[in-house]
Amino acid sequence: MRDAFVQTTVDLLENDPRTALVLADISADRFVDAARRHPDRVLNVGIREQLMVGVAGGLALTGMRPIVHSYATFAVDRTYEQLKLDLDHQGVGAIVVTVGASYDGAEMGRTHLSPADVALIDTLTGWTVHVPGHPAEVPALLRAAAQHDGPVYLRLSTQVNDLPRPDAGQLAVVHRGSPVAPVVVAVGPMLHPVLQAVTGLDVTVTYTHTPRPFDVGGLRELLPAPDGAVAPAVVLVEPYLAGTSSAVLSEGLSDVPHRLLALGVGRADLHRYGSPADHARWHGLDPAGLRRSVSAFLG
């Protein structure tokens, strides 16, 4: 996904004079040639992530379309105040593109883990959030974000699905169960493990790479009608903090009886290094863990 982001950004810098890129050392080696060609629009501020967002806010005030990029823990967690003040408060937008996801950088320890990034973005105003599940989904999402001035968060990961599904801005049905089947919502790279986990279960599996704004209308259309005392079931599987989208779904389904199981990264600091696969297993987000949780919930 990072390669797709770099190539698309280079193309935007070449062809759209509004595009600017602000870095804080991370991935600067990928943009050396672009910086030579566009020294006024490719800026590396060094290891100063708060300044990176501040500069982006200033560029946006002049009519530029800035892209800022770093690990999620540095570009969101560390810079939250600047996102709140230099972008949100001033009424301007930028495209924040991150790598590292929740635990892609697990071998570097807690400093590089960011499971709460989307929850933090949710406290700001009107952000679009893209969580692609495949590298081939990245270019179109980034190009679309470059065409407007709103705030956009593009969350890249080394965890990928088997196939791209570029038209999943709204909920896309990947596997349809019976008319009374519960609905499983897989966000971004969670689709592949979800499909493995629910093999043989009567569920409808849906996918989105754009959880904000969340396609509540699409979910409502897929929910089976209540059957007596049994409310329709929804299973939400996100690659970041468990329950991040629960409030959005609960508000959108406030007039619809339903049961919700929200799966994602747990809140506990595990104090472990390990690999992304290890963390997925520890948080119950591998196929076996998801199977246990979904089966228990559905009874």
TrEMBL record:
Q: Which CDD domains match?
A: TPP_PYR_DXS_TK_like (cd07033)
Return the Pfam families for the record: Transket_pyr
Q: Which InterPro entries match?
A: PDH/Transketolase, THDP-binding, Transketo_C/PFOR_II, Transketolase-like_Pyr-bd
Q: Which residues form the Transketolase-like pyrimidine-binding domain?
A: 1-164
Domain of life per record: Bacteria
Classification via SUPFAM superfamilies? Thiamin diphosphate-binding fold (THDP-binding), TK C-terminal domain-like
- Spell out the protein name for this chain: Transketolase
